[in-house]
Amino acid sequence: MGKYRIADVNIIMENSGEKTEQRGQKYLYDYDGKPDFKLRLETDKFPKWYKKHLKDQCYSEDEFSLTDYVHGLYGTGFSHKILEHNGCILHSSAIAVDGNAYLFSAHSGTGKSTHTSLWLEHFKGRALIINDDKPCIREIDGELYVYGTPWSGKHDLSTNDKFKLKGITFICRSDENWIRETSKPEAVSLFLTQTYRPTDKEHMDLLLNMIDKIFDRVKIYKLGCNISNEAAKLSYETMSCGEF
After folding, report:
1. Residues 72 and 103 in one domain
2. Are 75 and 11 in a shared domain?
3. Which contacts of 63-72 are long-range, i.e. CB under 8 A and separated by 24 or more positions?
4. 222 and 104, same structural domain?
5. pTM exceeding the 0.85 threshold for the entire prediction
6. Please, are residues 239 and 190 in contact by the beta-carbon 8 Å criterion?
7. Residue 61 backbone phi and psi in degrees, to 5
8. How far is 189 from 185, CA to CA, in rounded Å?
9. Among 15, 65, 193, 225, which is least packed by CB within 10 angstroms?
């Protein structure tokens, strides 16, 4: 049994597998009292679920291992339960500059990690990666914060810390660099394609309420970019000045 503190929430995870235990090391926290929630799945069901997942996704065991699968299951469990604590997960690469968090979201392979790596290069000691795949956004005392989580992408880039959310940008590939603020309907559509979407009404309502809070407090952008420092400079200069 592992006791963790993730996104300022006390959690117990049982049977979470080697990968989750390894990536969760920096989130271990020996708190007193009851956890805010517990994640536990029955290990005897993992092989059957895993084989079905491989078949459905046309993966081989070499491409996607059982421990990868179990790690993903617990990530889904966390994404579901955090909705009950004024939080949500956005599939994105989250970077902090000067204490503020900027999230870049896109379909896998579009270049969100490449773009944040340009920020690291451009801002050097001023920037760090919060999480490279599934950062958590939470509202606490009226403020929005971004947290690292153990579900941290291929290279396990994650920081166990929180930063104020400054802006969110959805990336698309382009030969030219451009950025614009999105309309709310477009932003909602983009957000829903890159977050965990629960199947029950209660948790879906929690997600939609959380999205409303985010959109009421920060600006949402769409960015067309190439692989250049100019793209990083453009997105930072726009997002860092994005005040309501």
Report:
1. no
2. yes
3. 66/17, 67/17, 67/18, 67/19, 68/19, 70/15, 70/16, 70/17, 70/19, 70/20, 70/41, 70/46, 71/16, 71/17, 71/19, 71/20, 71/23, 71/151, 72/151
4. yes
5. yes
6. no
7. -65, -30
8. 6
9. 193
Task: Supply the range of the domain harboring residue 16.
Answer: 2-80
Quickly list DSSP for 179-192. Answer: EEEPPHHHHHHHHH
Helices (H), 27-65: 46-57
179-211 per-residue burial string, b: 16 or more CB within 10 A, e: under 16: beebeeeebbebbeebbbebeeeebeebbeebb
Domain boundary among 45, 80, 115: 80
CATH of the domain at 189: 3.90.228.20
- Quote the number of domains for the chain: 2
Flag whether 172 is in a domain. yes
Between the two ends of the chain, the Cα-to-Cα distance in Å is: 44
Domain end (from 37, 55, 80): 80
Q: Strand, coil or helix: what is 127? A: strand
User: Please, what are the averages of pLDDT over each run of 10 residues along the chain (244 residues)?
Assistant: 95 96 96 96 91 93 94 97 98 96 90 89 90 97 97 94 97 92 94 97 98 95 89 92 62
Instruction: Name residues whose C-beta falls within 8 Å of residue 19's C-beta, 6 or more positions apart in sequence.
Output: 67, 68, 70, 71
Do 208 and 128 lie in one domain? The reply is yes
Reported as type and span, the H/E element at residue 92 is strand 92-97
